[in-house]
Amino acid sequence: MAEKTPAEPVVVEPVDSEAAVAEPAAAPKRTTARKDVDATETAAPSAETVPVEAVPVVEEPITASSDPETKVLAETTPAERPVQEVIVVDAPVAPKKRSNRVIGIAFALLASLVFTVLFALAVFIIGFVSNGSPSINFLYSPTFYWPVVLFFLSLVIVIAVVNTAGWWTYIITSVVVAAGVYFGTAAVLLVSSGVLSMSRQEADAVYFAALLNPITIAAALIAREVAIWTGAILGRRGRTVRLRNAEAREAYEREQAELTPTA
Predict the structure, then answer these.
(1) Is-above-0.85 flag for pTM?
(2) According to the per-residue pLDDT averaged within each range, which of 34-43, 84-93, 206-215 is highest?
(3) Is residue 243 part of a domain?
């Protein structure tokens, strides 16, 4: 029998990793690893491939403290002055004081008409009593209308002075109206009798005779009565005018006090 030859031991040499990488056989491993990397990159996209629309944009407010240029502009730009609103308020006008004079003149005209009618009636009655026969010839005499004119002028003067006074004031001043008519009528009769051709004694006698004439006395009495009742109407209206003037004055002072600034 032939002798068996003992088998030679197999020596396994260690494989150098650097040599293995350099060898062509290691190339498939690199290819496999690249594919894995490519697959990983494909599966997880990088941040560069994310759409712009998907990324929220946060706008930070730019303040003067954070932005140097804005801070410089804020320091160099002058602040706008506040607009002052001007409110124009009309100052209250002082109320005009109402009077009783204009209406008083109108009432004086009406009272003169009443006086004329009553005076004509009185002259007619006096002529009828003294002569025994009625006559209206006095209506054509200018001396008949002089007492009417004197009554109107006297009453207008009283109204202008008294104005808005009460009835009692008109009662007192009616004596002035009667006196003006009385002495004025006597003076008219004296002038109509030709005083310029008379002596002083004759003129005095004619004047005193005119003062005692029933027509002159009747004119004075009628003038006083008409003046009293006209004054009653004007006195009542004068009280209303005084109240209105007082109310208007109070309203004016109240508006003045509201507009006056307080300390």
Answers:
(1) no
(2) 206-215
(3) yes
